[in-house]
Amino acid sequence: MENVFDVLKERGFIAQATHEDEIRELLGKEKVVFYTGYDPTADSLHVGHFLQAVAMRHLQLAGHTPIVLIGGGTTMIGDPSGRTDMRQMITPETIKENGERFKAQLGRFIDFTADNAIMANNADWLMNLEYIPFLREIGMHFSVNRMLTAECFKSRMEKGLSFLEFNYMIMQAYDFLELNRRHGCVMQLGGDDQWSNIIAGTDLIRRKEGKQAYGMTFNLLTTSDGKKMGKTMAGAVWLDREKTTPYEFFQYWRNIEDASVEKCLALLTFLPMDEVRRLGALEGSEINHAKEVLAYEVTKLVHSKEDADAAMEAARALFTNNNASANAPTTEVELSRLESGIAILEVLKETGLVPSSSEARRLISQGGISVNDIKVESIDFNVTADMLNDGVLMIKKGKKTYHQVKAI
Predict the structure, then answer these.
(1) H/E segment holding residue 164
(2) Where is the short sequence motif 'HIGH' region located (predicted)?
(3) Whose C-alpha in 17, 59, 293, 400 is 20 to 30 A from the C-alpha of 218?
């Protein structure tokens, strides 16, 4: 059986590992208990979290035991990693509600039946800590000088790092120690921005327990120019269907840049790598087939086969409509304007689909305006660049009146 470390490496997951050769050997010969943590700072997971869940699923399929740690306690502090400002404080009630949503969403990818995985919440041990005993037992093992060199803190030094956030690394390291003591967890996984926090945990276990622990980080999901993927002009691409519909989710992956197709197929689907490389090598208009496969597979994983089928059908119907309405009027709009977002009322007037703002408001209130077959439900709707399909988006008034908007 192929070593899961090699699978993760071939598919492009692994960024850094504390002991690469030892981790590979361990994953090849023993059943390993490992964990990934999720701080419930929002009411849904997003596509960055999804990449971590796919990695956990690869490890679980190879016979290892995942611990999904919900950060009910650490969210009370806020992770400073990758941020230039302090996170907004969230109430305990909201954190609890968000955590329940995370559990439900992660259950789609991780098998929690028959002790195949463990769900934990660090609020169970962090919220009841006594400050002085904790400082004496745990705080004494952390060097402030060393902590200040960590990447997660360095980016905050100019604007100011609160003492509250400074504790985050210690809290996360303590999580690893607790999971090691409670469940025999020997490995922590996370995004590459968590490297400093992860090695702090392996070091704490070595100091307190005299045991070897391991850490491994995964590459963040980025575009070819280094920008984080999973963002649109409308906000994050969420896994919650109420926040990002299955069709919108499908369309996001259908419209990604050509250069990212092979990488996303490797990281976000379970297709064999031979097929991933074949699809990734397609060029010209044929790469659209690879994008369709990517969108279908990821939508099927996150939502369901039925949702993926429906989204595929809707996307193809839109393409057919686009072809059928090739003679429809076209309005050219500068791409920079679309990247900033253009109010739907303004677009409707520019295209000449409506004679006035009042008529536009009436049509929208009656459900008579669609953009790419998605009904516009508010006059606050913005038409944005991520809605473009090969440089064009389609606006429909009523059932038969089409108008193309072309980016230039």
Answers:
(1) helix 163-166
(2) 40-49
(3) 293
Euclidean distance between CA atoms 211 and 128, whole angstroms: 26
**Cα–Cα dist 26/213, whole Å:** 11
Residue 229 inside a domain? The answer is: no
Q: Which of 289, 322, 355 is the last residue of a domain?
A: 322
Are the C-beta atoms of residues 227 and 36 closer than 8 Å to each other? no
Q: Which residues are annotated as a binding site for L-tyrosine?
A: 35, 168, 172
Distance CA 69, CA 83 (A): 22
Residue 138 lies in a domain: yes
Q: List the domain range (segments joined by +) for residue 391.
A: 330-407
Q: Tell me the DSSP string of 127-157.
A: TT--HHHHHHHTGGG--HHHHHTSHHHHTTT
Residues 6+ apart with CB under 8 A from 256: 223, 229, 264, 291, 294
Q: Given the DSSP bridges, would you call strands 118-121 and 330-333 parallel, antiparallel or unpaired? A: unpaired
For residue 49, how many other CB atoms are within 10 A of its CB? 21
232-265 pLDDT, tens digit each: 545 688 999 888 888 888 888 988 888 899 999 9
* Cα pseudo-dihedral 38, 35, 27, 65, rounded to 10: -110
Binding residues for ATP: 231
Cβ partners under 8 Å of residue 252, min gap 6: 232, 237, 244, 295, 386
| DSSP symbols for 12-50 | T-EEEESSHHHHHHHHHHS--EEEEEE---SSS-BHHHH
From 220, 255, 288, the end of a domain falls on 220
* Residue list, annotated binding site: 35, 168, 172, 231
